Amino acid sequence: MDTRTLCLAVLLRGDASGYEIKKEFEDGPFSHFQLASFGAIYPALSKLAADGLVTVTEQEQDGRPDKKVYRITESGRAVLVGELHKHPHRDRYRSDFLFMLFFADCLAPQRIAELIDERRDFYRETVARMDDCDSLPTPGHAFVHGFGRAVYAAAADYLETNRDAFLETVETDPSKISTREAAE
Amino acid sequence: MDTRTLCLAVLLRGDASGYEIKKEFEDGPFSHFQLASFGAIYPALSKLAADGLVTVTEQEQDGRPDKKVYRITESGRAVLVGELHKHPHRDRYRSDFLFMLFFADCLAPQRIAELIDERRDFYRETVARMDDCDSLPTPGHAFVHGFGRAVYAAAADYLETNRDAFLETVETDPSKISTREAAE
DNA sequence: TCAGACATATATCGGAACGATACATAGGAC
DNA sequence: GTCCTATGTATCGTTCCGATATATGTCTGA
């Protein structure tokens, strides 16, 4: 999904400024499976306004900088629903964490343990935070929430279960950096 | 990880052309947690060669176009190991599939069922393919392989377990497109 | 008290990457 | 005989990320 569609999606759930839309991708339910940066959001909102898919209202605020509040229009809703009916792009997952562990023989065992523990804690905390959340207004929201929870929990469990055996194997394994030369 | 580092990583495991590196990101073990396109790989390889991190050998082939085979150098290995010791970037996951299911109240139940079934099959097939793979040369490779398998399996299980209840809820739920007006 | 960190808010810029396309050649399918 | 797939290199337009600039208020701790 491009950033314009993501902005429409946030606005479908209520009026918001660019800053608030960004927060939605930091903390909100979308944060687990979509990203958007300021550098993508602000141009996207300008384009949406130019195309009549959203309206803008400038709000003066005392103490804080002025705010531009965006609201989705009927055309905007139609475009969003249209996007929702296209064939979904394949999932894209990028993980430096797994990339590093893949080359565990280039890292010190202590560093590997750090990486794994940090990540396991992150997954556990995320699951706990998701369990605290009790407002799941739509069936779709609840289903996606449950999916994310299941996956995070499985990831944490795997790390916990296999951590020690992995570290032992790495420490025992005599092959340091695996190079082409080593194979020749 | 930027594309230059990813190319170094592939080359650490053996010499390869740009085309073969791309295939590695389509079918190889990296394909599950890193991506790279031709538009990123070819400029990256040129830059790596200019910086002396890889060497190039042009190979004529009968029947096929010429091939440029890249080989990682000692400097290249050092740079890769340096990257491996940096703090890992946070994981980035983008899923149009989850995005669409989030707005399930904008879709026909039949379409939702299609999306879920297709995705569940994909996860099941991926797990089966991973189980067939029997060459896991390094501990890191094996650990990451197991992690991926666990997560894919959990995802497939969740979809299978919750599919029917979800579809019933969606069909029963009277709220079609949830708009701001509906909340007012 | 006042420096520094943090939150709110909009916006742009350089560089990186995606996806499509171009070009070239060969083999197999229908 | 034409079309699709596979091998192979390369660029181009568009989009997007991450850092930075700018402005202002609050809160916190030496």
Short précis:
The structure is a homodimer of 184-residue chains. Chain A is mainly alpha-helical.
Characteristics of this structure?
homodimer, 184 residues, mainly alpha, two-stranded antiparallel ribbon, 8 helices, 3 strands, disordered C terminus, DNA-binding
Walk me through what this model shows.
The structure is a homodimer of 184-residue chains. The first copy, chain A, is 61% helix and 8% strand. Chain A contains eight helices and three strands. Chain A has a two-stranded antiparallel sheet with strand order 1-2. Chain A is elongated and about 65 Å long. The model of chain A is unreliable at 178-184 (pLDDT under 50). The interface between A and B is large, with 68 and 68 residues. The structure holds a DNA duplex (30 and 30 nucleotides).
The total strand number of chain A stands at: 3
Look at the helices and sheets of chain A and give the structural class.
mainly alpha
Mean pLDDT of chain A: 92
Total number of helical segments of chain A?
8
Shape verdict of chain A: elongated
Name the helicity range of chain A.
55-70%
Topology:
2 copies of one chain form a homodimer.
Chain A: H1 3-12, H2 18-27, H3 38-50, E1 54-59, E2 67-72, H4 74-84, E3 92-94, H5 96-102, H6 109-132, H7 139-172, H8 180-183
Antiparallel strand pairs in A: 1-2
Helix pairs in contact in A: 1-3, 1-4, 2-3, 6-7
The structure holds a DNA duplex (30 and 30 nucleotides).
